[in-house]
Amino acid sequence: MSSKILIIGACGQIGSELTYKLRNLFGDDNVVASDINTSNLDISNTGIFEIVDAQDFTSVKNCVEKHHVDTVYLMAAMLSATGEKFPEKAWNLNMNSLFHVLNLAKDKIIKKIFWPSSIAVFGPTTPTKYTPQYTTTEPTTVYGITKQVGERWCEYYFNKYHVDVRSIRYPGIISWKTLPGGGTTDYAVEIYHEAVKTKQYECFLKADTELPMMFMDDAIKATVDIMMAKPEDIKIRSSYNLAAISFTPQQVAASIKKHIPDFEVVYTPDFRQDIANSWPKSINDSYARQDWKWKHTFLLEDITQEMLFQLGKKYNTISKTPQ
Questions:
Q1: The whole model's pTM is what?
Q2: Of the residues 20, 73, 130, 143, which is catalytic?
Protein backbone atom coordinates (compact mmCIF):
# COMPACT_ATOMS: atom_id res chain seq x y z
CA MET A 1 0.00 0.00 0.00
CA SER A 2 1.40 3.41 -0.94
CA SER A 3 2.44 5.82 1.80
CA LYS A 4 0.70 9.12 2.31
CA ILE A 5 1.25 12.70 3.45
CA LEU A 6 -0.68 14.14 6.40
CA ILE A 7 -1.11 17.90 6.82
CA ILE A 8 -2.13 18.85 10.36
CA GLY A 9 -3.68 22.32 10.40
CA ALA A 10 -4.71 22.11 6.75
CA CYS A 11 -7.43 24.75 7.06
CA GLY A 12 -5.02 27.51 8.12
CA GLN A 13 -3.43 30.24 6.02
CA ILE A 14 -0.33 28.29 4.98
CA GLY A 15 -1.77 24.81 5.52
CA SER A 16 -4.59 25.32 3.03
CA GLU A 17 -2.34 26.41 0.18
CA LEU A 18 0.19 23.71 1.03
CA THR A 19 -2.62 21.16 0.79
CA TYR A 20 -3.54 22.32 -2.73
CA LYS A 21 0.11 22.18 -3.80
CA LEU A 22 0.80 18.73 -2.39
CA ARG A 23 -2.42 17.30 -3.82
CA ASN A 24 -1.39 18.69 -7.19
CA LEU A 25 2.07 17.16 -6.92
CA PHE A 26 1.25 13.76 -5.42
CA GLY A 27 -2.44 13.21 -6.16
CA ASP A 28 -5.57 13.66 -4.04
CA ASP A 29 -5.46 10.07 -2.79
CA ASN A 30 -1.97 10.48 -1.31
CA VAL A 31 -2.54 13.68 0.69
CA VAL A 32 -4.65 13.62 3.86
CA ALA A 33 -5.76 17.05 5.04
CA SER A 34 -6.72 17.42 8.70
CA ASP A 35 -7.78 20.09 11.15
CA ILE A 36 -9.73 20.42 14.38
CA ASN A 37 -12.85 21.41 12.41
CA THR A 38 -14.11 21.88 8.84
CA SER A 39 -13.64 25.66 8.78
CA ASN A 40 -12.30 25.57 5.20
CA LEU A 41 -14.85 23.74 3.06
CA ASP A 42 -12.65 23.92 -0.04
CA ILE A 43 -10.10 21.80 1.79
CA SER A 44 -12.46 19.44 3.59
CA ASN A 45 -14.68 18.79 0.56
CA THR A 46 -12.11 18.38 -2.21
CA GLY A 47 -10.03 15.43 -0.99
CA ILE A 48 -9.37 13.12 1.94
CA PHE A 49 -10.09 15.03 5.16
CA GLU A 50 -10.02 13.98 8.80
CA ILE A 51 -10.88 15.79 12.02
CA VAL A 52 -7.66 15.67 14.06
CA ASP A 53 -6.86 17.42 17.34
CA ALA A 54 -3.16 18.29 17.11
CA GLN A 55 -2.93 18.34 20.92
CA ASP A 56 -4.30 14.78 21.27
CA PHE A 57 -1.63 12.14 20.61
CA THR A 58 -4.19 9.40 20.06
CA SER A 59 -6.09 11.53 17.54
CA VAL A 60 -2.91 12.14 15.53
CA LYS A 61 -1.67 8.55 15.80
CA ASN A 62 -5.01 7.06 14.75
CA CYS A 63 -5.11 9.21 11.61
CA VAL A 64 -1.50 8.35 10.75
CA GLU A 65 -2.15 4.61 11.10
CA LYS A 66 -5.53 4.67 9.35
CA HIS A 67 -4.03 6.22 6.20
CA HIS A 68 -0.54 4.68 6.35
CA VAL A 69 1.02 8.13 6.60
CA ASP A 70 4.81 8.39 6.50
CA THR A 71 5.26 12.17 6.08
CA VAL A 72 3.68 14.81 8.32
CA TYR A 73 3.52 18.57 7.78
CA LEU A 74 2.64 20.05 11.17
CA MET A 75 1.09 23.43 10.31
CA ALA A 76 -1.21 23.81 13.34
CA ALA A 77 -0.12 26.71 15.59
CA MET A 78 -1.32 29.75 17.46
CA LEU A 79 0.45 32.78 15.97
CA SER A 80 2.14 35.76 17.60
CA ALA A 81 -0.60 38.32 18.17
CA THR A 82 -3.24 35.76 19.15
CA GLY A 83 -0.73 33.94 21.33
CA GLU A 84 -0.17 37.08 23.42
CA LYS A 85 -3.87 37.07 24.29
CA PHE A 86 -3.87 33.36 25.18
CA PRO A 87 -0.29 32.53 26.24
CA GLU A 88 -0.96 29.21 27.97
CA LYS A 89 -3.14 27.97 25.12
CA ALA A 90 -0.45 28.99 22.62
CA TRP A 91 2.22 27.11 24.57
CA ASN A 92 0.10 23.97 24.88
CA LEU A 93 -0.96 23.85 21.22
CA ASN A 94 2.41 24.71 19.73
CA MET A 95 4.50 22.42 21.96
CA ASN A 96 2.23 19.41 22.49
CA SER A 97 1.54 19.04 18.78
CA LEU A 98 5.27 19.03 18.01
CA PHE A 99 6.05 16.42 20.66
CA HIS A 100 3.31 14.15 19.35
CA VAL A 101 4.74 14.17 15.84
CA LEU A 102 8.38 13.89 16.96
CA ASN A 103 7.50 10.89 19.11
CA LEU A 104 5.68 9.20 16.25
CA ALA A 105 8.87 9.55 14.22
CA LYS A 106 11.05 8.37 17.13
CA ASP A 107 8.89 5.24 17.29
CA LYS A 108 9.31 4.72 13.52
CA ILE A 109 5.58 5.15 12.87
CA ILE A 110 6.32 8.03 10.49
CA LYS A 111 9.50 8.77 8.55
CA LYS A 112 9.66 12.50 7.84
CA ILE A 113 8.40 15.72 9.44
CA PHE A 114 8.06 19.32 8.35
CA TRP A 115 7.67 21.78 11.21
CA PRO A 116 7.62 25.55 10.60
CA SER A 117 9.58 27.95 12.76
CA SER A 118 9.49 31.73 12.42
CA ILE A 119 11.43 34.99 12.60
CA ALA A 120 9.65 35.27 15.97
CA VAL A 121 12.54 33.26 17.48
CA PHE A 122 14.62 36.42 17.27
CA GLY A 123 14.42 39.24 19.78
CA PRO A 124 15.64 42.77 20.59
CA THR A 125 19.22 41.54 21.17
CA THR A 126 19.40 39.95 17.71
CA PRO A 127 21.21 41.87 14.94
CA THR A 128 18.32 43.41 13.00
CA LYS A 129 19.93 43.82 9.59
CA TYR A 130 20.72 40.73 7.57
CA THR A 131 20.15 38.57 10.65
CA PRO A 132 22.53 35.60 10.50
CA GLN A 133 21.58 31.95 10.81
CA TYR A 134 23.52 31.53 14.04
CA THR A 135 22.85 34.41 16.42
CA THR A 136 21.19 35.38 19.68
CA THR A 137 17.58 34.19 19.98
CA GLU A 138 15.77 35.86 22.88
CA PRO A 139 12.11 35.96 21.75
CA THR A 140 9.68 38.32 23.49
CA THR A 141 6.42 36.53 22.58
CA VAL A 142 4.96 33.19 23.63
CA TYR A 143 4.81 32.25 19.95
CA GLY A 144 8.51 33.03 19.56
CA ILE A 145 9.36 31.07 22.71
CA THR A 146 7.52 28.01 21.40
CA LYS A 147 9.39 28.25 18.11
CA GLN A 148 12.77 28.70 19.78
CA VAL A 149 12.18 25.73 22.09
CA GLY A 150 10.74 23.72 19.21
CA GLU A 151 13.90 24.26 17.18
CA ARG A 152 15.99 22.84 20.01
CA TRP A 153 13.74 19.80 20.30
CA CYS A 154 13.84 19.19 16.54
CA GLU A 155 17.64 19.17 16.55
CA TYR A 156 17.67 17.01 19.68
CA TYR A 157 15.38 14.39 18.14
CA PHE A 158 17.51 14.37 14.99
CA ASN A 159 20.77 13.91 16.93
CA LYS A 160 19.41 11.48 19.54
CA TYR A 161 16.85 9.46 17.57
CA HIS A 162 17.77 10.17 13.92
CA VAL A 163 14.36 11.73 13.27
CA ASP A 164 14.22 13.28 9.78
CA VAL A 165 12.72 16.62 10.76
CA ARG A 166 13.08 19.69 8.55
CA SER A 167 12.21 23.29 9.29
CA ILE A 168 12.35 26.84 7.98
CA ARG A 169 11.91 30.14 9.79
CA TYR A 170 9.05 31.76 7.91
CA PRO A 171 9.03 35.53 7.54
CA GLY A 172 5.69 37.34 7.18
CA ILE A 173 3.54 35.59 4.56
CA ILE A 174 1.28 37.37 2.06
CA SER A 175 -1.60 35.53 0.38
CA TRP A 176 -4.87 36.44 -1.36
CA LYS A 177 -6.48 33.02 -0.96
CA THR A 178 -6.94 32.83 2.80
CA LEU A 179 -7.45 35.45 5.49
CA PRO A 180 -4.67 36.15 8.00
CA GLY A 181 -4.51 34.06 11.14
CA GLY A 182 -3.53 36.41 13.97
CA GLY A 183 0.08 37.32 13.19
CA THR A 184 2.02 40.56 13.58
CA THR A 185 2.78 40.75 9.86
CA ASP A 186 -0.91 40.41 8.93
CA TYR A 187 -1.13 44.10 8.04
CA ALA A 188 0.58 43.21 4.76
CA VAL A 189 -2.41 41.04 3.85
CA GLU A 190 -5.16 43.22 5.31
CA ILE A 191 -3.88 46.33 3.54
CA TYR A 192 -4.55 44.79 0.11
CA HIS A 193 -8.04 43.66 1.05
CA GLU A 194 -8.96 47.11 2.32
CA ALA A 195 -7.34 48.85 -0.66
CA VAL A 196 -9.60 46.90 -2.98
CA LYS A 197 -12.74 47.04 -0.82
CA THR A 198 -12.69 50.53 0.76
CA LYS A 199 -9.57 52.33 -0.53
CA GLN A 200 -8.57 53.06 3.05
CA TYR A 201 -6.72 51.18 5.78
CA GLU A 202 -5.87 51.71 9.43
CA CYS A 203 -2.45 50.12 9.96
CA PHE A 204 -1.52 48.74 13.39
CA LEU A 205 2.22 49.28 12.76
CA LYS A 206 4.20 52.49 12.23
CA ALA A 207 4.77 53.57 8.65
CA ASP A 208 8.53 52.86 8.75
CA THR A 209 8.40 49.41 10.40
CA GLU A 210 10.56 47.23 8.17
CA LEU A 211 10.00 43.47 8.35
CA PRO A 212 11.01 40.42 6.27
CA MET A 213 8.11 39.32 4.06
CA MET A 214 7.36 36.70 1.41
CA PHE A 215 4.62 35.90 -1.07
CA MET A 216 2.75 32.68 -0.31
CA ASP A 217 3.83 31.01 -3.56
CA ASP A 218 7.46 31.37 -2.50
CA ALA A 219 6.73 30.10 1.01
CA ILE A 220 5.02 27.00 -0.39
CA LYS A 221 7.87 26.46 -2.84
CA ALA A 222 10.42 26.62 -0.01
CA THR A 223 8.39 24.16 2.07
CA VAL A 224 8.17 21.64 -0.75
CA ASP A 225 11.80 22.16 -1.79
CA ILE A 226 13.26 21.45 1.65
CA MET A 227 11.12 18.33 2.02
CA MET A 228 12.15 17.00 -1.38
CA ALA A 229 15.86 17.65 -0.79
CA LYS A 230 18.18 14.72 -0.10
CA PRO A 231 18.66 14.11 3.64
CA GLU A 232 22.40 14.70 3.34
CA ASP A 233 21.74 18.18 1.91
CA ILE A 234 19.84 19.26 5.03
CA LYS A 235 22.73 20.40 7.21
CA ILE A 236 20.65 22.37 9.75
CA ARG A 237 18.12 20.38 11.80
CA SER A 238 16.93 23.20 14.05
CA SER A 239 15.52 25.58 11.42
CA TYR A 240 16.81 27.41 8.36
CA ASN A 241 16.63 31.17 7.95
CA LEU A 242 14.43 31.96 4.95
CA ALA A 243 14.11 35.28 3.17
CA ALA A 244 12.71 36.96 0.10
CA ILE A 245 12.21 40.72 0.54
CA SER A 246 11.82 43.30 3.30
CA PHE A 247 9.57 46.36 3.25
CA THR A 248 7.62 48.82 5.40
CA PRO A 249 3.87 49.56 5.51
CA GLN A 250 4.66 52.89 3.85
CA GLN A 251 6.36 51.10 0.95
CA VAL A 252 3.42 48.72 0.52
CA ALA A 253 1.02 51.66 0.50
CA ALA A 254 3.13 53.45 -2.13
CA SER A 255 3.15 50.30 -4.26
CA ILE A 256 -0.64 50.06 -4.02
CA LYS A 257 -1.12 53.76 -4.82
CA LYS A 258 0.51 53.20 -8.21
CA HIS A 259 -2.60 51.17 -9.04
CA ILE A 260 -5.18 52.84 -6.74
CA PRO A 261 -4.11 56.50 -6.54
CA ASP A 262 -6.80 57.53 -4.02
CA PHE A 263 -5.88 54.80 -1.51
CA GLU A 264 -5.31 56.24 1.97
CA VAL A 265 -3.60 54.79 5.04
CA VAL A 266 -3.55 56.01 8.63
CA TYR A 267 -1.11 54.59 11.15
CA THR A 268 -2.30 53.76 14.68
CA PRO A 269 0.26 51.39 16.23
CA ASP A 270 -1.02 48.96 18.88
CA PHE A 271 0.57 46.18 20.98
CA ARG A 272 1.81 44.50 17.81
CA GLN A 273 4.27 47.36 17.29
CA ASP A 274 6.34 46.15 20.26
CA ILE A 275 6.39 42.66 18.78
CA ALA A 276 7.50 43.98 15.38
CA ASN A 277 10.21 46.10 17.04
CA SER A 278 11.76 42.93 18.46
CA TRP A 279 12.02 41.23 15.08
CA PRO A 280 14.66 41.54 12.34
CA LYS A 281 14.38 43.97 9.45
CA SER A 282 16.08 41.61 7.01
CA ILE A 283 17.35 38.01 7.03
CA ASN A 284 20.51 36.28 5.82
CA ASP A 285 19.36 32.96 4.38
CA SER A 286 22.61 31.98 2.66
CA TYR A 287 22.60 28.49 4.20
CA ALA A 288 19.22 27.65 2.65
CA ARG A 289 20.38 28.98 -0.71
CA GLN A 290 23.59 26.97 -0.48
CA ASP A 291 22.37 23.69 1.03
CA TRP A 292 19.11 23.04 -0.83
CA LYS A 293 19.26 25.74 -3.52
CA TRP A 294 16.47 27.98 -2.19
CA LYS A 295 15.59 30.94 -4.43
CA HIS A 296 12.67 33.35 -4.17
CA THR A 297 10.70 34.75 -7.13
CA PHE A 298 8.32 37.53 -6.05
CA LEU A 299 9.36 41.14 -5.39
CA LEU A 300 7.07 43.79 -3.86
CA GLU A 301 5.67 45.04 -7.15
CA ASP A 302 5.00 41.45 -8.27
CA ILE A 303 3.13 40.84 -5.02
CA THR A 304 1.10 44.02 -5.32
CA GLN A 305 0.04 43.30 -8.89
CA GLU A 306 -1.01 39.74 -8.06
CA MET A 307 -2.79 40.68 -4.83
CA LEU A 308 -4.76 43.54 -6.39
CA PHE A 309 -5.69 41.46 -9.42
CA GLN A 310 -6.85 38.41 -7.47
CA LEU A 311 -8.67 40.42 -4.78
CA GLY A 312 -10.19 42.59 -7.47
CA LYS A 313 -11.74 39.46 -8.96
CA LYS A 314 -12.81 38.27 -5.51
CA TYR A 315 -14.57 41.54 -4.67
CA ASN A 316 -15.74 42.21 -8.25
CA THR A 317 -13.91 45.51 -8.55
CA ILE A 318 -11.81 44.81 -11.66
CA SER A 319 -12.13 42.85 -14.86
CA LYS A 320 -8.71 43.16 -16.46
CA THR A 321 -5.64 40.99 -16.12
CA PRO A 322 -2.49 42.21 -14.33
CA GLN A 323 -0.01 44.13 -16.44
A1: 0.94
A2: 143
